[in-house]
């Protein structure tokens, strides 16, 4: 059967200028999504302080720094308060 109807029109190809949602073009939606993902990653890195040391030397230096800070904190706890260490001249006993 031959029909006289015109052939169905193919849908327009999807390009970066295609309106996707809420009047935003495809490249705008991708950009907003990328910025959101980047913001989440930066926020998580700031909260959890996930830093990746680059070299073995840097890893060892950070370990030594942590150990020194821990040793210093332990020794600081054993020091008596300043008013017990010194006598203030003319002070009330």
Strand order of the largest sheet: 1-2
Give the CA-CA distance, first to last residue: 117 Å
The 3D shape can be described as rod-shaped
Which range does the strand content fall in?
5-15%
Count of helical stretches: 3
List the helices and strands in order: EEHHH
Determine the fraction of residues in helical runs and give it as a percent range. Answer: 40-55%
Structural class: mainly alpha
Largest sheet: 2 strands, antiparallel
Low-confidence stretches: none
Overall average residue pLDDT:
80
Keywords: Membrane, Transmembrane, Transmembrane helix
Pfam family, one: TMIE
GO biological process, one term: sensory perception of sound
Transmembrane segments: 26-48
